[in-house]
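User: Reviewer 2 asked us to show a designed sequence for the structure in our supplementary figure. I'm pasting the C-alpha cells here. Could you produce the per-position amino acids so we can include them in the response letter?
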C-alpha cells in the first residue's frame, strides 16, 4: 500500500472524494481486514486512522482464523484460543486508538 505523509494511502483520498461528490448521506467507511496478516493490517490501520472518512475497522478473520484452525484441530485449548483471539483484537484496538486523533470522531449529522 502506498502512503502519503499524514494523508494516508492514495485510495483513501480517492474514496473520500468519490463519497463527497456522490453520496451526501455517507457517514464514513470501515477498513476491512480481508484475512491480512497482523503486520500488514497494523500498517493499514495506522494510515487509515489519519483519514476522517474512515470510522473504524472490521477484521474478523485476522483476529480469529489462526486460533480457530488450531483449536478445531485440537492443537490448542479453549482458553488458549480465547487468549489468542482477545490478544489480537486488543492489539488492533491499541493500534487504532494510538493512531486516531479523537477530534476525527465527532458525530456528524446526515444531510437530512
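Assistant: Here is a per-position design you can include in the supplement:
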Amino acid at each position: 500500500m502506498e502512503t502519503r505523509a499524514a494523508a494516508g494511502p492514495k485510495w483513501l483520498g480517492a474514496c473520500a472524494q468519490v463519497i463527497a461528490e456522490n453520496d451526501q448521506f455517507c457517514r464514513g467507511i470501515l477498513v476491512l481486514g480481508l484475512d491480512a496478516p497482523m503486520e500488514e493490517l497494523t500498517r493499514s490501520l495506522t494510515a487509515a486512522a489519519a483519514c476522517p472518512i474512515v470510522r473504524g475497522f472490521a477484521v474478523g478473520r485476522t483476529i480469529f482464523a489462526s486460533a480457530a484452525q488450531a483449536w478445531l484441530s485440537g492443537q490448542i485449548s479453549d482458553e488458549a484460543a480465547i487468549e489468542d483471539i482477545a490478544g489480537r483484537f486488543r492489539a488492533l484496538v491499541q493500534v487504532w486508538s494510538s493512531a486516531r486523533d479523537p477530534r476525527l470522531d465527532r458525530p456528524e449529522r446526515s444531510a437530512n
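For the response letter, you might also mention the following. The radius of gyration is 16 Å. The chain is about 55% helix and 10% strand.
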